[in-house]
Each structure stands twice: as C-alpha cells, then as structure tokens.
Specification:
This protein is α/β, with parallel strands linked by helices. 46% of the residues lie in helices and 13% in strands. It binds flavin mononucleotide (FMN).
C-alpha cells in the first residue's frame, strides 16, 4: 500500500504536466461581468490586495492549491511553491499526506514547505474518504490526522472531497456512508480550522450548509472547469490497460458544478464562512470575478504546478502577471481593497445565469447587479 500511494503521487504530477487534463467545458468566467467605471478615482499604485483569512493576514487573496508531496522527486515542487508563498504572503496547501502517514520516511517531502515558508498560512491535507473504513484499508485515526497537521505545523487542515476521482481510479475507495459524521468529528477534535475542499466537481448550497453544520471553518468549492481529476485518472487507467475505469473517467470529465456557480451556491449555503474559489481560475480577471461573487480567496492548482516545474523565474512571472491583472480589474471597478471588490456590482449571463435562476438565486443575482446610488 505504501509504495502504491507513493507511486501515485509522482504519476499524478507527470500525467498533469504531460497530458491535457483540463475539463472540456470551461468554468465560464466570461458569464460573470464586472461593471466598468469610467472614472475610477482609485490610483493603481494604492490598490491593496491584502485579505484576512481564518485569523491570518494574507498579502494577496491567493491560495497555492494542495498539489503534491509523497515522492522524493516532487519535493522540489513543494520547495519552490513554499518559497513564493512565503515571499508573496500567500496561503499554501500540501498535497494529500496519506503517503507520509503510511510511510513516515516521506514526511520531508511535505515538511520542506514549513521550512521554506516559516510564517505563511500552511494547510495540511487528508482525504475525507480515508476518514472511514474502506475495503482496502482502515479509517485514519484522530492521531493520524493530527500527525498530518503537525508534519507541516499547519494553520488549517483541508479535508479533500474527491469521490469522482476515487470512482475513476482503478484502486479507488468506493465507500462514502458515515463520511460527514467523520468530518464533523475531525473538525471538533483536530485543534486547527478545517476546510471542506472539493477537487473539481464543486460544492452546492445544500452541501455547503452540511459542512457549515459539521463544523467546517471554510469551504474550497473546487468547482468544475479547471483541472479534471477524472481526466487525470482516466489517463492513468488507460496506461494500465484498464479501459473500464478509463471510460468512467472520460465520461465524467466535465461532471460537476462550474466554479463561479459553486461560489454563489456555497456563499449562500454557508453564510459567514470564507469561500475559496478554485477550479479553472487562470487570470487575475477571473480572480476579480470570483471575489466579486463573494469568494475570500482564489485557489489555483495547475498554473502553479506548471510554473513550479519550470523554475523560480516562471513562478515569479506568473505571480507578477496575475497580481497585475487583478489590480487592473480592481481599479476599473473602482475597488481600492478586496472588501470593496466583494461589494462591487456583478452582472451574470449565459448558462451561469440560467443555472442560478433555476436554483432560486435570482434575487441574489439581482442584488449583486444592483445600482449604486
Ligand atoms: C497533479 C495534481 C495533484 C493534486 N493533488 C491534490 C491533493 O493531493 N489533494 C487535494 O486536495 N487536491 C489535489 N489536487 C486538486 C487541486 O488542489 C485543485 O483543486 C485542482 O487542481 C483544480 O484547480 P486548477 O483548475 O487551478 O488546477 C491536485 C491537482 C493536480 C493537478
């Protein structure tokens, strides 16, 4: 089991970097329009992108999404990502820590993150499906989860929700009953804030409400329209000649709630909880749209993975461009701060609007598009 998990960690990174594993349907950020201000009365240089997240001040509303660890060859990716997380004042997640929980020799591939980012907001990671007993393994104990947190001296713990990925994984876990109760128990006992984190299929109003009741401190909607874990697993299954599982991964490549919609669903379902908008965020303009819809942070996986695999220059270039784009969008909506942006009027159209109307969020939308007198 220990070698299997370790091998999977390197395969995920290689598959994502060498194949197109993006959902075929984009996240539809273009359906979300901010209203241009011809005279913004805000200097570009005075724009402040700092934001409070779970009691911590971040310099930018950016989460370097949980990606990797668990194989010696990926430690360099975590090292580079942590270096920029520290330098730019970002939040950063490590990938699933199961590999190091079953083989403690791999802990250094995760703890390098805390070494390189001593004061950044670091988020530990474990899978919600592993909190219950599965056919092939016992449930994680409270002590296991605590070890994951301690391994990176984490400020918070993300429990990832990846039942779509598990279904498209030849060796995937299939049991789900009892997982919400197990989530609630971890949230009550682990001692750090717990984030409910989808990984590409989104979180609905109802599920956001469930997670808030179960004690989640934040929700990462991990919506559809960016990296598709189903597509990633399909490539792996194909590589093993498992056409049955590969077919499931392909069929469900676009399954899920697109990210902008999931942001609205989750902000309504879990009022007051910080929402992270992850899934297909590819520019500072996408980020501005997500924040205007009510998100507190945007998360990105693949863009950070790709830049980190190329080196530090690529990471700096990516972040400089992204932050500059966000600031331009803020200036053109007259927002000097992230909280101004979160109050900016938003107009939605296309399939995004249809979905939100069908789900009864029409009034919320009209409120978001309100005129400012
Ligand atoms: C190679 C790879 C590995 C990932 N591993 C994890 C993981 O271990 N835990 C987790 O919560 N999410 C994991 N994710 C999901 C990301 O955190 C993120 O939700 C996803 O990539 C969507 O964002 P994107 O469209 O910006 O890539 C992984 C994503 C990729 C591409």
């Amino acid at each position: 089991m220990s070698d299997e998990v370790k091998q999977r960690k390197i395969e995920h990174v290689n598959v994502a970097l060498n194949n197109d594993v993006t959902a075929a349907q984009p996240a539809s950020w273009a359906d979300v329009r901010l209203i241009h201000r011809a005279l913004p009365e805000v200097d570009l240089d005075e724009i402040d992108t700092a934001v409070d997240f779970l009691g911590h001040r971040l310099q930018h509303p950016i989460f370097v999404s949980s990606l990797t660890g668990g194989h010696p060859d990926v430690a360099i990716i975590n090292e580079r990502l942590a270096t920029v997380a520290q330098q730019y004042g970002l939040a950063m997640g490590v990938g699933s820590q199961r590999a190091a929980l079953v083989n403690p020799a791999l802990a250094a591939t995760y703890s390098i993150v805390r070494e390189k980012a001593p004061t950044a907001f670091i988020i530990a990671n474990a899978g919600a499906p592993q909190l219950i007993e599965q056919k092939r393994h016992a449930a994680f104990t409270a002590a296991d989860v605590r070890r994951a947190v301690d391994m990176v001296r984490a400020d918070a713990l993300a429990l990832h929700l990846n039942y779509l990925q598990e279904a498209a994984q030849p060796e995937g876990d299939r049991r789900a009953k009892g997982c919400l109760a197990a989530f609630a128990q971890v949230a009550a006992e682990v001692g750090v804030p717990v984030i409910a984190k989808e990984t590409g299929a989104g979180i609905s109003f109802e599920q956001a409400r469930d997670f808030q009741r179960a004690g989640a401190s934040a929700i990462d909607v991990g919506g559809a329209g960016g990296s598709s874990m189903a597509a990633m697993e399909s490539v792996r299954a194909q590589g093993r000649g498992d056409t049955h599982t590969a077919g499931i991964g392909l069929l469900f490549r676009d399954w899920g709630i697109p990210t902008p919609i999931a942001v609205v669903e989750a902000t309504q379902g879990a009022p007051g909880l910080p929402i992270i908008s992850t899934g297909g965020v590819r520019s500072g303009l996408d980020a501005a749209r997500a924040l205007a819809l009510g998100a507190t942070l945007v998360g990105m996986g693949f863009p950070f993975l790709k830049a980190a695999s190329e080196g530090m220059d690529a990471l700096h270039e990516f972040l400089a461009r992204f932050i500059a784009e966000l600031k331009v969008a803020m200036q053109l909506t007259g927002a000097a701060t992230i909280s101004d942006l979160q109050r900016a009027p938003v107009v939605t159209g296309g399939a995004t609007r249809d979905w939100l109307d069908m789900r009864g969020f029409g009034d919320t939308l009209r409120g978001m598009a309100r005129r400012q007198m």
